[in-house]
Design a protein that fits this description.
Helix content is about 50%, strand content about 25%. The protein is α+β, with helices and mostly antiparallel strands. The model has no long low-confidence stretch (mean pLDDT about 90).
Length: about 220
């Protein structure tokens, strides 16, 4: 539950709003008192939180026999509506930022200091690639990126995979590296490389001591 609340807060929803909405999904209609009791929100704050949910169209009031009751927006509608709203906002921001980009130098490198950041960056590169993907990868990362790679292949991209060890996943052209144990011990971890459209590259290393990667983009980049 804590992880779900955290993910909701990453969407711009406050912790109390997330707790109240989840409480309503579990039990509705509910009174303000019941929402406070089931969510752990202080009773002094609960009406303020409910009001914000109503403004976000995440909840609405119905009239009970003795008191006001509240129901949540259905989960599917909330997710679909929130996704459309976010996409509209992202599209608008992208259009407006194009004017600010100007002659920005794209030949720099960007350091990524954790595993989650590496996977997120790799998924973004795969989802925005238009022609080719070259990836050198171990089983754990291949599994994590498989859905994005399958989507890319469905879009018609050419994909070449150098895979360390055996895999049941069939995407693009797969070339197995036969000496994964030797490579792992020599390098002290799992190496990672992803090149998208011969202009954007992500290289990294994943080990028990941590993960780090370098992302670079250059119009003249090639491999």
């Amino acid at each position: 539950m804590d992880t779900l609340i955290f993910r909701l807060t990453q969407l711009g929803i406050s912790e109390y709003e997330a707790k109240a909405y989840l409480a309503l999904l579990k039990e509705s209609p509910s009174s303000a008192y019941e929402i406070a009791k089931n969510s752990g929100i202080p009773t002094s704050k609960v009406y303020e939180v409910i009001k914000r949910l109503e403004l976000r169209n995440m909840a609405q009031t119905i009239h009970g026999e003795k008191t006001r009751m509240f129901i949540p927006q259905p989960l599917d509608e909330f997710i679909a509506g929130f996704k459309l709203s976010m996409e509209d906002n992202f599209d608008a921001v992208k259009r407006e930022l194009q004017d600010l980009k100007g002659g920005m130098d794209t030949s720099y490198t960007w350091h990524i200091g954790n595993y989650e950041g590496l996977i997120v960056k790799a998924k973004r590169m795969i989802s925005t690639a238009g022609k080719t993907i070259i990836i050198s990868v171990w089983p754990a990362e291949f599994e994590a990126l498989s859905a994005a790679l399958i989507d890319a292949e469905a879009r018609g991209l050419k994909i070449a995979v150098l895979h360390y060890g055996a895999t049941h996943i069939k995407i693009g052209r797969i070339y197995r590296h036969p000496q994964e144990e030797t490579i792992y011990s020599q390098r002290g971890g799992r190496g990672f490389m992803l090149v998208a459209d011969s202009r954007e590259a992500l290289t990294g290393k994943i080990s028990t001591g941590g993960s780090e990667a370098i992302w670079s983009m250059n119009e003249a980049f090639g491999i």
